[in-house]
Amino acid sequence: MLQVNRPMGLGELLDGAFRAYRAHFARLVLISAIFMVPVGVATTLLLGFTVSGFNQLFFAATNEGDIGAAAPTAYALLAYLVLGFLGYVAMALACVSLISFIVPMLQGEDLPVGESIRRGLRRLPAFIGMAFLVALGIGGLTLVLYLVLALFFFVVAAGVAALSSFGDRGMGALAIGAMIVAFLFYFVAIFLVFIPVALLAARWLIAPVTVVAERLGPRGSLKRSWALTRGNLWRCFGYLVLLVIFNFVVIGLPITMLQWLLMFALTTQWYGWLSGLVAGLTYFVNILWYPILVLAITLLYFDLRVRNESLDLAARIRTLEQSVESQAPTMLLTPIMTDGGETQMPTTEQPIQMPASPPAQGTSQAPTQPGI
Q1: Which of 93, 156, 174, 365 suits 276 as a labelling partner, its CA being 20 to 30 A distant?
Q2: Residues 6+ apart with CB under 8 A from 235
Q3: Would you give the DSSP letter of residue 344?
């Protein structure tokens, strides 16, 4: 059984996630598949019609006579939105159910799959509320940063335009150079925008686990994650980067390569079904990958509790108390020596006789006088 009873490095956390995944592979994959298989099949079948409908709308826009024939594609657009919502719900259900299974498993409890799903369902509303607040916070920060960059670029562009308005050739060259520098700075700044966004995401990385493990609400889970990651921000940031890289290698890169290969091999009339196949395949790959991701985040949650709250010390104290309680009856039944030199087991009515301590050095024991 995997236990987090000491602070662990990032490599140890990932190794522990893979070891726990191998040990409980069948049940972890089953929990994930229960929610993702139906959505994956529906996405593969319906998204092909949806993307084909978009293509029909695009071509109909150039031919007024065919617009009426493309009207039914509005239903395909509705199906696309419904599938997107169902996909989000399926991922949320899989996440809370997996956490409901993993947390007791790390604490030594073997929870059935059905009970894990029932516990996860009870925490789904709080999880959705937490995810909405996270999306709102990260999306708002990203929007503000991009607006600041856009304003800066607008000011630089206005300055370059003012310089180029002068007739001097030197000023024109200076304007061109300033424009090139501004473009380079803009692209670097776009990349730098992701750093504060990623840092914020790292502070809320373990919020999903706190929703289930500690039964907190949306705001309470974010505050709890913020408190546990205090002092470990860059460590959590590095862990998040590792998980993103693993996610890209496992899911993003193979599916992207498959999509490009099929686009070159198939004709344009199959692009709709190709999109459906790729989107559905993403869910099927997530059946295998998603449990590892949830395991990694849950192990980070326990590791942060060990570092900040001495969770390992509390666990050791409980283990010691249980050990003492289990040995207490054995200690009471220790054989004792009777006056006749025979051993006898004490009973509940017979008090335990403690051996007499030897006399202190330098003192003599008074002889017992008969008849006194």
Answers
A1: 93
A2: 10
A3: E
